[in-house]
């Protein structure tokens, strides 16, 4: 029997997830200053976000399955300590190669954010799994939304090196809290870590529910990335020709997605996940319809982005709750397969965004995203026909 989290444990995991994932993005506003400080081309320092993403993918593949083997207090504290070490290495880097190596470590260790969501779902009280996963997802969303703002402000105040050290200090506080407050119960997984990794690929073949989650999740993340990448490109070109700061203000539309997540969690506990996911995707599709009308009216664009973000964020929280419910004892392995393929599909969306915009313009790009969202909604109904609400925590 899995013991529930202590009082405030889910909130702690949400704070840990937000603080950890923020480190993948906090340096981005300071990349020009970093390039000048290290006296290297900006194109080289521009590889930092790529290194963080590569590290995150590695963490999802190799570290997320550890949630099936190690007690939460030990696993989370150790990974946060590694994250703080990576930040310290980045803060003391005197060349691009050490900085990029540090960001590979930072990205891998920041995958503790996904572990936090998995732990929250596994240790949730009966009938509260969706709420737990959504609460941690809200923390992650807040970390992503606020990371660039906080990172830029701290860089202006103290410089980019001290900014990283401030984040390292926050991460160490999280490690201490995790070591003291998170459950000390070790999961019942009896196979070795190597055997767990070897068993990851067959999961996709043997678990129809996981296949369905991967296909539908990949489709909406593909659509999400297409919209956000091409939005920046479209707004920077005539007839809009907006400055980067003005373009960045559109990211505030994501606050609606953040605000919707706690409500999504309650819905996921009450109704079948496919029902919540379908409704969320139709909300995102309504946003895509508004975006397809063009970008000449900022209020309409902002509303379209808000609905898109709210729908995709809500669908992702419900989908992860659904994956954990497939087999709570192996939820780390199941989530590992899901997230690796989810982000791979998102990267595909990013790579085709500019060619889509060139070929079909903004309306055609938005309609492509709409088609992917509607297909995801349809497949959600087809691939999970008998799904019911999750009333237990496993």
How is the topology of this model organized?
Layout: H1 9-22, H2 31-38, H3 42-45, H4 48-62, H5 72-91, H6 96-109, H7 112-122, H8 129-158, H9 160-181, H10 193-198, H11 200-206, H12 208-236, H13 244-249, H14 255-270, H15 273-292, H16 298-326, H17 331-383
Helix pairs in contact: 1-7, 1-8, 1-9, 4-6, 4-17, 5-6, 5-7, 5-9, 7-8, 7-16, 8-9, 8-14, 8-16, 11-17, 12-16, 12-17, 14-16, 15-16, 15-17, 16-17
Overview of the structural elements:
The structure is a single chain. This protein has 17 helices and no strands. The longest helix has 53 residues, at 331-383. It has 2 domains: 9-197, Growth Hormone, Chain: A; 200-383, Growth Hormone, Chain: A, CATH 1.20.1250. It is an all-alpha fold. The chain is globular and about 60 Å long.
Structural class: mainly alpha
* Fourth-level CATH superfamily of the largest domain: MFS general substrate transporter like domains
**What value does the average pLDDT take?**
88
Query: Quick one: overall form?
Result: globular
- Rg, please? 20 Å
CATH architecture of the largest domain: Up-down Bundle
**Percent range for β-strand residues:** under 5%
Number of strand elements? 0
Q: What is the CATH C level class of the largest domain, in words?
A: Mainly Alpha
Q: Kindly report how far apart the N and C termini lie.
A: 8 Å
Uncertain spans: 390-394
Tally of helical segments? 17
Order of helices and strands: HHHHHHHHHHHHHHHHH
Helix percentage? over 70%
